Amino acid sequence: xxxxxxxxxxxxxxxxxxxxxxxxxxxxxxxxxxxxxxxxxxxxxxxxxxxxxxxxxxxxxxxxxxxxxxxxxxxxxxxxxxxxxxxxxxxxxxxxxxxxxxxxxxxxxxxxxxxxxxxxxxxxxxxxxxxxxxxxxxxxxxxxxxxxxxxxxxxxxxxxxxxxxxxxxxxxxxxxxxxxxxxxxxxxxxxxxxxxxxxxxxxxxxxxxxxxxxx
Amino acid sequence: xxxxxxxxxxxxxxxxxxxxxxxxxxxxxxxxxxxxxxxxxxxxxxxxxxxxxxxxxxxxxxxxxxxxxxxxxxxxxxxxxxxxxxxxxxxxxxxxxxxxxxxxxxxxxxxxxxxxxxxxxxxxxxxxxxxxxxxxxxxxxxxxxxxxxxxxxxxxxxxxxxxxxxxxxxxxxxxxxxxxxxxxxxxxxxxxxxxxxxxxxxxxxxxxxxxxxxx
Lengths: 215, 215
Hints:
Two copies of one chain form a homodimer.
Chain A: E1 22-27, H1 34-50, E2 56-62, E3 68-69, E4 75-76, E5 80-81, E6 90-93, H2 99-102, H3 106-118, E7 121-124, H4 128-134, E8 142-143, H5 150-156, E9 161-162, E10 168-170, E11 174-177, H6 182-195, H7 197-206
Parallel strand pairs in A: 1-2, 1-6, 2-5, 6-7, 7-11, 8-9
Antiparallel strand pairs in A: 3-4, 10-11
Helix pairs in contact in A: 1-6, 1-7, 6-7
């Protein structure tokens, strides 16, 4: 983006444009799938910490601000609670078995709807999109989710154009991704969208992301 | 492996063979790179928890057993300290900036050498292999590391056959991998080696690992 970067406010950011105060929040909750949250954390924290000149930061938040026990039993601390988190430009809602009780947790769905009102870019990994569907965020939109939850996504909101074959679906102010490891690809797409392709390539190299599944 | 599984003791396990007590430990330490540790954690905990019949378990350990602050600022809890960890069949030593002080931390290097004596299969992610090199584990062996640390690996032990282009290097009782995200590929290789290709494919599908870097 070169020297014209300051004239090129990326879509999905607050109108004040580039500056030191744009912030990404990654939601943690009981039963969050570890890699759903920490894949994007690795990508986004590498970007924001190695390239602070881009003016972004990232932190993890939980309702209380306390630690959570993830789906596979890892305990991870949030940096903020809902009450003391900075205003968000981007939210990442991971998935995991902990999303199931959220689907009829009115307090959580109300928080998600409030975030939708306040946060320009809402994103999800894996079954995080089920929660967005239950909150009504995906009405008449294309979206995806974990391969084993595609049917449930359509059931929660039959108006959704379910995309079973997409690694992630960027529909402007909402981006949903497929399962678990797909959060890494989606997060690199976010860097591409928010800071340009060259920067996303820097981050990809930084985490040596040349995946080569051996099976 | 079907009904003959009990006759087919995988290499790199204690001689008592398949049973409910084979254990993988993932090392946590101050400044560990988040995805170095939690990529393998996701793969291995998915395997061991979804397929308990394979007789493996996995946990995270730190010297004191307490939480650690990772390289990018995430705080993660260990399940065990060095003193109360179960006997390990496999150790995963991640990398991160926290490996630099370990390179001349005699207490840590002595622990790594003791693990080498006790643990049949020693593995590393990213700059974890620098610590193995400093401890003398890689003498006259092929190995790899994070792309930016290849020179330092050769410097630490010029007898190492450095493999800059390999995603991971399996040299029997020691497996080293390249940077950060490569731990996911290496961990899938471990499942393949310890439980067979079909199982590793199950785990790959479980974490929907069909990577598709967008940049």
